[in-house]
Amino acid sequence: MERRRLLKLVSGTASAGAAWTAGCLDDEEPADDDEDTVVGGRWSTYGYDDSNTGYSDLTTGPMTEPEVRWTADVDGVVFETPAVTEDRVYAATAEDGSLHAFDRDGGDVWNWRFDEDAVGWLRSPTVVEGTVYTAGGDGKVYAVDADEGETEWESEVGFDVSSPTVSGGVVYVSSDDGLYAFDASDGEPLGPDGGRIADDAGSGAVPAVGGGRVYASTTGTDAAVYAVEAPGSEGIESVEEPVWETSADDADTWFSNPSPTYHDGTVYAVLGRGRLHAFDASDGGVVWEQPVGLVGSGASVAVVDGVVYVAAVDDSGVEVVLRVVAVESEDGTPLWTADVSTSQQLSPDFLTRLSPVVAGDTVYVRGVPVSDGGPSTTVAAFNRRTSEQRWTAEYDGVVSNLAAAGGELYAGRSAEGDGEGGTAGGSIVSLGES
Description:
By secondary structure, the chain is an all-beta fold. It has one helix at residues 192-195, and strands at residues 8-12, 55-56, 67-74, 83-84, 88-92, 98-103, 108-113, 126-128, 131-135, 140-145, 151-156, 165-167, 170-175, 178-183, 196-198, 208-210, 213-217, 224-229, 244-247, 261-263, 266-271, 275-280, 286-291, 302-304, 307-314, 321-328, 334-340, 357-359, 362-366, 377-383, 389-395, 403-405, 408-414, 426-432.
């Protein structure tokens, strides 16, 4: 395998303006507890867990500006978030529809493709109990043995399939013609029409599970979040109407289909033109809403210790600004906003999915590349309690969201091109402290 350093283009300091709301948090600055966090662990699915909380207290990322530890080249662009276990890194590619397994030092373990003759993408992998679950541009969900890279089962769904969410032995995916559920062990459909448990389409949005229900979203300018009862191992015989469905008042001004986050009886999603909504998980009632900025189609938020974290782009001023926003989960009260300084020319017209990652006491965000495989992408880290910037840097071609594990960040990247109008593939990159 070819390994090489990525070009680190810029290293700088983000301007983080912390605007604390009186009485929201203790007046004294909390002590960092990252030193007590277990260094190791995993980030084995898109949103860390089946509720898409985007938070782990069992692992850390780099606390100081990281260097590129290794890169592992693949044939296709890696737009999707890698999955990381204790000893492996799994990455899915666009264009050639391949799934790659590496050891934690970047060594090649195995490669898998859903069809040797097909061209298409695969979604972010999810790793549960020795199986890697992914979904492809061919309209199928796949289960692949995590050790050997052999197909265990496959099932057809619609196109524009989401990354899988696995919960309680059930695999959930949303697609352009509904929400589907399958038995994780053998792919047995748990609903009629090949496993469908809801008719509402939600292309690319990752479902969340919590409180005995599955939460998903629809696609388009009238995007909505909805809830259905989890089917359980016995499945359902007929597709019922959602338990509840709700949308934003300003949804018709912006295309969106958020990946919902469930936490402690509340569902969080950014709908419309950058408004964070909190819905009561029992009936879908709007608990509160707060403007935060644009996040991109399929984005999710992170929730931890009574705070919701959002990575967003603000295009309301003269300049487009990348920022992290923290609000109280109970009532949406703003806690702080931290702007990320970057050399990039940001544009809401090229806004890929922005989803923050929280590991221990640190929020990590990936910026918006100017174009596919653009010259650089900003990656930044903030103290989640105080908004203090820990570090910010720019790396060549990072296009996926981040996964944090064992003191490192893992991301997918795109090559700049082959000079003849095509792509030269991409790679997985590991960022860690020296």
